[in-house]
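User: Run a structure prediction on this.
Assistant: Running it now.
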Amino acid sequence: MPTTTDAKILILLQPSLYTQLFASQTDRALRELGEVTFWTYRPEPGQDLTSEQLAEQIPGFDVVVTAWGSPTFTTQVLDAAQHLKLVAHSGGTIKHMLPPAVFERGISVTHAASAIAPAVAEMTILLILLCLRHACTYDRMLKVGESWESTRVIPMGEELADQRVGVVGAGYTGRRTIALLQALNAEVWVYDPYLDQESANELGVRQVTLDELLTNCPIVTLQAPATEETYHMIGARELRLLLDGAILVNTARSHIVDQDALLAELRTGRFQAALDVFDQEPLPVDSPFRGMDNVILTPHIAGSSRQARARQGKVVMEEIERFLKGKPLRHRVTREMLDIMA
């Protein structure tokens, strides 16, 4: 086991992303933990590293810091990574790059999903409030020259306090969202098949089935991960269960919702939606979603904030420090978690 100062740390982040995540103080702290090396850019700056290139560069490194766009740790990479002890991912999901073989070889894995969760939770609350108070509708009307009086045709808005909100998924972002909802005096119902009753009691939520949640909650927010189990878990049947006038927020993954079914149901005007994620990103200019007045759109930015970026780097640095000092990782990812995490 390498110790601090003699550990060799390979950074697989683009320079622009590294400076966002690792503020000067965090960068200094990381460099005090060992010898930091950045991967070589080739053939052009800004191009993602390939698995073949990683296999060439990874020999001799004890720790690798990964990010969005990092290559898959193929057998070729793992065979070359004879000294590798820890992969510290500066984002959330690790499925695209770390196959089960990584864990089978005894390599420890950690990630920074917890650092992103507060930003997603805040954005979720913002979108709910915008829908409740029809803020975007008022904005559009006034900007195209509608009279002050004409805005009175919009139904009176509602407060979030005392509303029943259904949260689908009680992972990092789900739990942060629950806490914010409860701080605003909302009643929270949760659907998550992996949430036990004891944890539900600790969270102060009512645990229900998905059908119960969709049928009884006028506000529904999706915080579930993208897994085989959650693929299109919200389809045409489930969407029809939503209450008239409901609000559906998705700041998780589009994978969870059948997009064609969602479009069809939204066209009825029966409920509002606020969407941050889509099957095709960037969202095409001719996407039907862009023309809907009962939909608020944001370009997959729920988890993006300056504070979140800084937290991500800090979490990674602290996890590396704990590992090198022989302390338990706070955000360890295990092989058993792969099937149910994002």
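The first strand starts at residue 7 and ends at 11.
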